[in-house]
Amino acid sequence: MLKKIKVLIVDDSAVVRDILSKELSKESGIEIVGTAMDPYVARDKIVFLKPDVLILDVEMPRMDGLTFLEKLMEHYPLPVIILSNLTPDGCELSLKALELGAVEVMHKPMLDLSYKLRELIILLTDKIKAAAGVKYRFLVTREEKRLEKEKKKENFIPIIKANLINLTDKIIAIGSSTGGTEALQGILRVLPHGFPGILIAQHMPENFTRSFADSLNRVCQIEVREAKHGDTIYPGLALVAPGNYHMILKRSGVRCYVEVKQGPLVCRHRPSVEVLFNSVAKHMGKNSVGVILTGMGSDGAEGLLKMKEAGAFTIAQDEASCVVFGMPHEAIKLGAAAKVVALKKIPQELVDYFNNLKKIKV
Looking at the domain 171-359, which fold is it? Predict the structure, then answer.
């Protein structure tokens, strides 16, 4: 019998603690070992109960969640999922939480709506299982990464050179989940202005993706923004699928654009990487590149295979550089990846591919 994942819930709302405890306890493989109304109570329970995963609210009395998270990652690192009301200000706090070491950020909806609650529990269950699988070294090095980032804040990050002639009809599709926010920044930050259009499906909650896209836009040469229904795709632009919406590539003549819409969860997610990859395979085929990054589960694996079968060049992130080696692993097992590449080498792999396109006979 597999060992259950021990979860501690930290939230100042007794109602939230009670609902989450009852609903998550029904899920296979999860054990709620305790709850805490604030970080001070949580601190003692963490030492005694030794949870595998912590669910943490941001706004709490006595000590806010971010302060607690920073202390926790310094002295007792463990996987933390932020579950909070994501107002515009809350989104910025959630980005900060990821920088401090949280592995996931989720939106806490009104829990008296049964359909919202059911979706939350489905997604939260997946996030808990993903968090429990996070490699320990990605937790203990977070503070070192933060300090290194502060030191290098003013340093110039070299942009990779590329031969960008006649690439207006090419599109890159990227899918990611747990650990994907940092992975995406590592890739997009070094791509040159005018690089082929990029479509991104990152598992994120509603209202959070705009802040995430804006944060990327501030540090990238290319333009990065949250996708809107009907947006045209062109070189130098990266579109991030809005949280809680699927993003689908469409084509009308030479114009490529996106549809943004809701609908059922696909592979237990919305946005779904599978939905994006399938649409790119259908409409762009050999004129596309597919990249699947860190994350739990299989979302996007079959879609990447369809892209490869349609003639696309496909890449999967390697195990050593993944925070969670789930989605890439499933894609590799299917034979969907033409190349398996370490995260830091993916940007150069993309650039080399496009630089060499003129040498390839189509």
Answer: Rossmann fold (3.40.50)
